[in-house]
């Protein structure tokens, strides 16, 4: 069996891969449309930080269940440790999109006007006005249902945190890596992790 899945893309980027598009497919509320043990590789890039902590264990468990024994799960997301280091060093240059893929949200709206602290917070709990939306993910609404904003990033991860989650779910081997050829974004500043069932 050689079945591979990319989560987050509308169309497969590589021959022989399937894809499920987000947010059209709701990974929090829906089970992946594959039999348990039927995938030998799952890849997602810059999806993890959009899933609330209260849902992440069940989402990653669902991915784990779809992998065959020995299957690989590759994750790429903003690296919280590197973001905090940029903040602690007062290094605004690290938030430039060319340096770190995680810089895009921090360069919009009020975040750059607040300085490096605002740019850091955009990565941990980034929100935007409805007028500024590129895509709607998680609405902020009043009790009356009036939408006034959207939350984009709702979580931040470093390697130890993610490693603990992956072991909790059942992955036997977890390793931090550099950017690999499959990765959509090649900039540094990303947390790159391979986990094996």
Keywords for this structure?
197 residues; 26% strand; 2 domains
Care to describe what's here?
- With 197 residues, the chain is an alpha/beta fold.
- The protein folds into 2 domains: 4-78 and 157-196, Rossmann fold; 80-151, no CATH class.
- The protein has helices spanning 53-66, 80-88, 116-125, 159-169, and strands spanning 4-7, 17-20, 39-45, 67-78, 127-129, 138-141, 147-151, 173-177, 190-196.
- A 6-stranded mixed β-sheet has the order 2-1-3-4-9-8.
- Strand 6 and strand 7 (147-151) form a beta hairpin.
- Helix 2 (80-88) packs antiparallel against helix 3.
- The two termini are 15 Å apart.
- 32% of the residues are buried.
- The model has no long low-confidence stretch (mean pLDDT 87).
Radius of gyration: 17 Å
Q: Identify the strand order in the major beta sheet.
A: 2-1-3-4-9-8
The succession of helices and strands, N to C, reads EEEHEHHEEEHEE
Strand content is: 25-35%
Tally of separate helices: 4
Number of separate domains: 2
């Amino acid at each position: 069996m050689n079945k591979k899945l990319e989560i987050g893309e509308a169309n497969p980027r590589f021959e022989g891969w399937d894809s499920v598009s987000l947010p059209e497919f709701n990974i929090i509320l829906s089970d992946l449309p594959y039999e348990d043990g039927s995938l030998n590789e799952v890849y997602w890039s810059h999806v993890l930080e959009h899933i609330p902590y209260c849902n992440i264990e069940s989402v990653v468990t669902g991915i784990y269940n779809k992998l065959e024994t020995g299957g690989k799960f590759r994750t790429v997301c903003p690296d919280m440790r590197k973001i905090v280091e940029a903040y602690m060093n007062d290094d605004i240059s690290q938030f430039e999109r060319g340096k770190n893929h995680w810089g895009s949200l921090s360069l919009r709206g009020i975040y750059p006007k607040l300085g490096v602290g605002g740019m850091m917070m955009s990565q941990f709990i980034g929100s935007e006005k409805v007028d500024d939306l590129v895509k709607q993910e998680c609405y902020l609404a009043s009790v009356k249902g009036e939408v006034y904003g959207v939350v984009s990033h709702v979580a931040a991860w470093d390697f130890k945190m993610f490693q603990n989650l992956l072991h909790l779910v059942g992955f036997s081997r977890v390793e931090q890596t550099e950017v690999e050829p499959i990765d959509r974004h090649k900039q540094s500043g990303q947390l790159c992790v391979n986990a094996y069932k």
